[in-house]
Write a structure and sequence with these properties.
about 10% strand; about 230 residues
């Protein structure tokens, strides 16, 4: 992507800046102005997605914190309220790096880490379906099948919830889905060694690593599929 629009159009730069700052009102106004002049996909790819990518990079370097990321995500969503209908009218789909179903596993109500990972994945171009916390095993599988997800990402902070991740692996095996759905795990109760033992495809010690692992898994699966 050359991001010509970002370099040449002040309104695009303003939209980018408003998302980075997390200013919902400004993001809405600039999106509303731009959508009457440029293709919606160009606005997303050249003005909006680069802003969220930058926010994600700042967060990874600990230069900003979760409230700032959440504010930027809200500004992005506010702009999409004007861009989205144009995409739908033209029957255009936004290209993504992959689809991820994410949630905190059954028996665990801790979701801060999971929320950060979900935001970081969105910032790096993934389509994310967040199931929340205390998610039953079958719901991961149902949602993954419903949206044709590439990756199921599971978080567990409590060691008492680890058996449910094993149940998830078993359920995927029983349904013959292990070759179709990549499984990522993480959280305070999970170690790299345990992830390998249970048969997970990837493990993220923190949000930044989780994003890198997700990107690597998608790249490997594309190469495998060629």
């Amino acid at each position: 992507m050359t991001q010509t629009l970002l370099k040449e159009n002040p309104e695009c730069r303003n939209l980018y800046d408003s998302i980075v700052k997390g200013n919902i009102e400004e993001a809405s106004q600039y999106a509303k102005n731009l959508v009457n002049e440029y293709p919606p996909l160009d606005i997303i790819q050249e003005c909006m997605s680069p802003a969220m990518k930058y926010v994600g990079d700042l967060f990874e370097r600990l230069e900003i914190f979760l409230p700032e990321v959440l504010a930027s995500a809200d500004a992005f969503e506010a702009a999409m309220k004007y861009i989205g209908p144009k995409l739908e009218a033209q029957k255009i789909t936004t290209p993504t790096k992959g689809k991820v179903v994410i949630g905190t596993i059954q028996g665990d109500i801790h979701d801060l880490g999971k929320n950060i990972v979900a935001l970081m994945l969105k910032a790096h171009g993934f389509e994310v379906y967040d199931l929340g916390r205390d998610v039953p095993v079958y719901k991961f599988v149902e949602k993954a099948e419903e949206v044709n997800a590439d990756i199921i990402a599971v978080s567990a902070l409590l060691s008492t919830s680890l058996p449910f991740i094993k149940d998830l692996v078993r359920l995927l095996d029983e349904k013959g889905l292990r070759s179709k759905r990549l499984l990522m795990v993480g959280g305070g109760a999970v170690t790299r060694e345990w992830a390998t033992t249970v048969g997970a495809d990837g493990y993220g010690e923190n949000a930044a690593e989780a994003v890198k692992v997700a990107i690597e898994l998608m790249q490997r699966s594309k190469v495998k599929g060629e």
